[in-house]
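hey
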C-alpha cells in the first residue's frame, strides 16, 4: 500500500520521560480549511534523550531503523486521527492534538485531522461541537490552519482508514494516544500492515 520510499514497517515510538519525552482512507471525503486566532503554543520537551526508535512493530522485516532526530527533523506532513465520539474530545485525543501542534510548530509542518467513525453520523449539534473543539484545541497550540477530513459511516476499520489517508496524502507521521488502542478503536497488530509511515503513540 505504501509507496517505495515509505517505511516497510510502522515505527511505534513510546514515551520515556515525564517531561514529555516522546518515544514513537478511499471514498467520499469532506475537506475543510480552518483559520483561528493564534495563541501561545504549549511548550513540550521533545525527544531530548532518544537517539533511535525505541520499539518497532515488525509486520514486515526491516534491518535499519532511522535515528529519531533524522526522522523528526524532516517532518512536513502530520496526521492526527480523531476516533473517539466524545464531542469534547477524550483526554487522549486532546493530548495528541497538543503534541501534534507542538511538532508542527517546531518543524514547520502542516496538520491534517481525520475524523473517523464506522457508523454514519447524522448532522447533529454533537458533531458540530466536536469539530469546534478540534479547532479550539489546535488553536490552543498556536496552530492557525489545518485540514479536516471526515470518513464517516464507511464500515471500515479505523486503522485501514488511517492507512489510506496517510498513503494518499503522503503523511510522514501519525500521532495518536494509546487510549485509541486501549479503547479498542485501533488494533495495534494491524498498524504495520496498514500505516505506511511512523506512528507516534502517546501514553495515557
Amino acid at each position: 500500500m505504501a509507496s517505495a520510499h515509505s517505511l516497510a514497517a510502522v515505527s511505534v515510538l513510546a514515551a520515556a520521560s515525564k517531561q514529555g519525552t516522546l518515544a514513537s482512507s478511499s471514498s467520499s471525503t469532506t475537506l475543510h480549511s480552518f483559520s483561528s486566532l493564534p495563541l501561545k503554543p504549549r511548550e513540550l520537551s521533545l525527544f531530548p534523550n532518544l537517539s533511535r526508535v525505541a520499539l518497532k512493530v515488525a509486520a514486515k522485516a526491516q534491518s535499519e531503523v532511522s535515528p529519531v532526530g533524522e526522522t523528526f527533523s524532516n517532518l512536513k506532513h502530520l496526521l492526527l486521527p480523531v476516533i473517539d465520539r466524545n464531542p469534547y474530545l477524550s483526554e487522549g485525543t486532546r493530548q495528541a492534538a497538543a503534541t501534534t501542534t507542538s511538532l508542527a510548530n517546531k518543524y514547520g509542518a502542516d496538520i491534517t485531522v481525520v475524523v473517523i467513525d464506522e457508523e454514519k453520523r447524522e448532522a447533529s449539534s454533537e458533531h458540530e461541537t466536536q469539530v469546534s473543539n478540534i479547532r479550539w484545541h489546535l488553536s490552543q497550540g498556536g496552530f492557525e490552519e489545518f485540514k479536516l477530513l471526515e470518513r464517516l459511516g464507511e464500515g471500515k476499520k479505523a486503522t485501514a482508514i488511517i492507512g489510506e489517508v496517510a498513503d494518499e496524502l503522503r503523511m510522514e507521521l501519525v500521532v495518536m494516544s494509546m487510549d485509541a488502542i486501549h479503547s479498542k478503536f485501533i488494533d495495534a497488530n494491524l498498524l504495520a500492515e496498514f500505516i505506511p509511515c511512523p506512528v507516534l503513540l502517546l501514553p495515557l
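Residues 77-202 form a domain with the Rossmann fold fold (CATH 3.40.50.620). Residues 1-67 have pLDDT under 50 and may be disordered.
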